[in-house]
Design a protein that fits this description.
The complex is a heterodimer of chains A (454) and B (231). Chain A is built from 13 helices and 14 strands. Chain A is an alpha+beta fold and 454 residues long. In chain A, helix 10 packs antiparallel against helix 13. About 3% of the residues of chain A have low confidence. Chain A is 55% helix and 18% strand. Chain B has two domains: 118 residues, Response regulator (Rossmann fold), CATH 3.40.50; 102 residues, Orthogonal Bundle (Arc Repressor Mutant, subunit A), CATH 1.10.10. Chain B is 40% helix and 23% strand. In chain B, strand 7 and strand 8 form a beta hairpin. Chain B starts with a strand and ends with a strand. The model of chain B has no long low-confidence stretch (mean pLDDT 88). The chains are: A alpha+beta (454), B alpha/beta (231). Chains A and B meet through helix 7, helix 8, helix 9 and strand 9 of A and helix 1, strand 10 and helix 7 of B. Chain A: It holds the Pfam family HATPase_c. Chain A: Keywords: ATP-binding, Kinase, Membrane, Nucleotide-binding, Phosphoprotein, Transferase, Transmembrane, Transmembrane helix, Two-component regulatory system. Chain A: It is found in: Membrane.
């Protein structure tokens, strides 16, 4: 049995123990109450004295017990007698010889509750006398219980109080037990939460659940190692690909720009150059998304003007010779209003650039792209709207439900590698912001980024 | 401009060859190459180049170490080239005294644009004239020649014009222009900028209300379209 099994078995046993203890104590409590309450009846319940009395009849002043009466006495190994008002035995059956045949008031008072010469007795008042049944000694214990009336209520109250104290004690024991489990499980649950968030885990490997803690530490180390290896691999690959890609890009551009070369050759070089640029972007995106995912990207937060940032991005795109098929516009919701937010300028530029690039990539036949910036007291909103063909309702729902971006992308040659929007989401998340996707009326896609001002 | 001596440093012989060819095709007549940090330092000492293109990852002495060594004796402008996309590298480059930083892979025109921008800034030409349809601007004298008469540019107009000229043909944002004339705390100076732009247009445009040389890019900034330049 391992430590965790032992821990949980102990927890179950102690819970069962508490329940058993509670039941025992309370059953005993209830039982004792009934014993006390019905003690007086116990004596009668030992011998059916009333029934017996009915089998002793008087005829012409003569008492006669029938056969059943004799049988009842024999069965109980008992004797019987009837005393008249003077205390004289007027009828008897099996009455031992040594017992007197006359009793005075004191004698009757003495044996009526307890014993008559060691014989436990039960008595029954008849119209014509007092029926006395004597049971064999040692078979029944007669005990006369009496309370002062003033103690009856405190006693009942005491019983109820003990009952509630019992319940409280049980609740306390349950809570204590649960608390112990919670105390032991808390760090483990925290550890699992950390693991699911991709953060490193280190739990103290002590206490009853040390084994589980050690297991979680090991799992955490393994995941971190795996993540690091993957990140290192991507970083290494992206590094190794950069220099050869520089050569391809460089020479393809040179060939493309050499006017003395045949038109076809230049055109082909242009294709190589364009695809190399796509690879270049892919390497950059892959690197950035990996670093953001594994929190390896240093975030340089500073206060800046988001309007100027958007202007810079838009001007870069325009300066980069954007095809004439696209119309790029920029506007401020409140022109002239000074806004400043705190964030990483490089990352947020990248975010806007990706959103604009996304409009271009998904609308190869051209579209109008509008970028606008607005703000209120706490939120700064970047809106990128295009009037292209937009996305289907299911894609829109998927985008808004944080589903994996790549699964919502159309599998066409035009669709980019799917990292563009993922990076946007990651950057927004880094800035504690929100991304919302909506349909542009009559057609197209609107992306709204809401960022806290601080 | 193209007679400036450029030293390209990279341990990859083929890349070195390619960068050299990019500069030569762009008209640079003096392009030197070095395959290591040590060789680069030696060459800098002997040939005194006007600009150094320095690769970061080199065996033995890397780009940062080379730059630190170089900065002990020289202020030559340096553009760092790197295959590592790390932001820390970028900051380390600037901290060590680099003038610019370019990530591999790069387009030849991107490299040329950056190098030319640095050269323009560090080695301003003695005779610089910019031509427009109805006027030309002498950057050395900060004067506009128009219909035979000379009109002077105010200090702010000159700073503004220089910024636009450095980026001729490209959009320059309102913020960058405000920063050029007002410094880092430029917010709220947009209307002042608009005034200077209007004055500048009055000096270089035939019809300032229908500008063709200094055009507005709505909501973003301005672009200077020049007819030609003489340096």
């Amino acid at each position: 049995m391992n430590a965790s099994e032992r821990f949980f078995r102990r927890y179950i046993f102690s819970t069962v123990g508490i329940v058993v203890l509670f039941l025992t104590v309370n059953v005993a409590l209830v039982a004792s109450y009934f014993v006390i309450a019905y003690f007086g009846n116990v004596a009668t319940s030992n011998f059916p004295i009333e029934d017996f009395s009915n089998h002793v009849i008087v005829a012409n002043g003569q008492f006669t017990g029938d056969a059943q009466a004799t049988e009842m006495l024999n069965k109980a190994d008992a004797w019987a007698m009837i005393l008249d008002e003077d205390g004289t035995v007027v009828w008897e059956e099996n009455l031992p010889e040594e017992l007197p045949r006359h009793y005075n008031a004191t004698d009757i008072a003495m044996f009526s509750r307890w014993y008559l010469d060691d014989y436990p007795v039960n008595i029954w008042k008849r119209q014509d006398g007092l029926l006395v049944i004597g049971l064999s000694p040692g078979n029944v214990v007669n005990y006369y219980l009496s309370f002062r009336a003033q103690y009856v209520w405190p006693l009942l109250f005491g019983l109820v109080a003990v009952f509630f104290i019992n319940i409280l004690l049980m609740v306390y024991l349950f809570i204590r037990n649960a608390h112990r489990v919670e105390k032991a499980m808390g760090p483990i649950l925290d550890g699992i939460r950390h693991l699911s968030a991709g953060k490193p885990v280190h739990l103290e490997e002590t206490g009853e659940l040390a084994e589980i803690n050690a297991g979680l530490n090991k799992a955490g180390d393994y995941l971190m190692k795996k993540d690091n290896t993957r990140a290192e691999w991507i970083r290494g690959i992206s590094h190794d690909i950069r220099t050869p890609l520089s050569m391809i890009l460089g020479y393809a551009s040179e060939i493309e720009d050499t006017v003395s070369l045949p038109e076809t050759t230049r055109k082909q070089a242009g294709i190589i150059r364009r695809h190399s640029e796509k690879l270049k972007n892919l390497v950059a995106d892959l690197n950035l998304t990996t670093k953001l995912e594994y929190s390896m990207q240093p975030i340089q937060k500073q206060r800046f003007d988001p309007v100027e940032l958007a202007r810079q991005v838009v001007s870069e795109v325009l300066n980069d010779e954007l095809s004439e098929l696209y119309e790029l516009e920029f506007s401020e919701d409140s022109p002239g209003k000074n806004i400043s937010i705190v964030g990483d300028q490089i990352l947020l530029s990248r975010m806007l650039n990706n959103l604009i690039r996304n409009c271009v990539v998904h609308n190869p036949n051209g579209c109008r792209i509008q970028i606008s910036i607005g703000s209120n007291a706490t939120i700064c909103t970047f809106t990128v709207t295009d009037n292209g063909h937009g996305v289907s309702e299911s894609q829109l729902n998927a985008l808004n439900s944080d589903e994996d971006i790549s699964s919502t992308q159309k599998q066409t040659e035009e669709a980019e590698h799917g990292l563009g929007l993922k990076i946007v989401r990651q950057i927004v998340k880094t800035h504690q912001g929100v991304v919302r996707f909506a349909e542009t009326i009559p057609h197209g896609l609107t992306v709204k980024i809401l960022l806290p001002m601080e | 401009m193209n007679d400036r001596m450029i030293l390209v440093v990279d341990d990859e012989a083929e890349l070195l060859e390619m960068v050299k060819s990019i500069f030569e095709r762009a008209g640079f007549t003096q392009v030197l190459t070095a395959a290591s940090g040590e060789a680069a330092l030696k060459m800098c000492k002997e040939k005194q180049p006007d600009m150094v293109i320095l690769d970061v990852m080199m065996p033995r002495m890397d780009g940062f170490a080379t730059l630190r060594e170089l900065r002990k004796t020289s202020k030559v402008p340096v553009l760092m080239l790197t295959a590592r996309g790390e932001a820390e590298d970028k900051f380390a480059g600037f901290e060590n005294g680099a003038d610019d930083y370019l990530l591999k892979p790069f387009l030849p025109k991107e490299l040329l644009f950056r190098v030319q921008a640095i050269l323009k800034r560090v080695y301003p030409e003695k005779e610089r004239k910019v031509f427009f349809d109805v006027a030309n601007v002498d950057l050395e004298k900060a004067m506009v020649q128009r219909n035979g008469e000379s009109i002077s540019l105010t200090a702010k107009e000159f700073q503004l014009f220089e910024k636009l000229y450095e980026n001729a043909g490209r959009i320059v944002t309102t913020g960058s222009l405000c920063q050029a004339i007002c410094g880092d705390f430029w917010q709220g100076y947009e209307s002042t900028l608009a005034t200077h732009i209007r004055h500048l247009r009055e000096k270089i445009e035939e019809n300032p209300s229908k500008p063709v040389a200094l055009v507005t890019i709505k909501g973003i900034g301005y672009r200077l379209n020049i007819k030609g330049a003489q340096t």
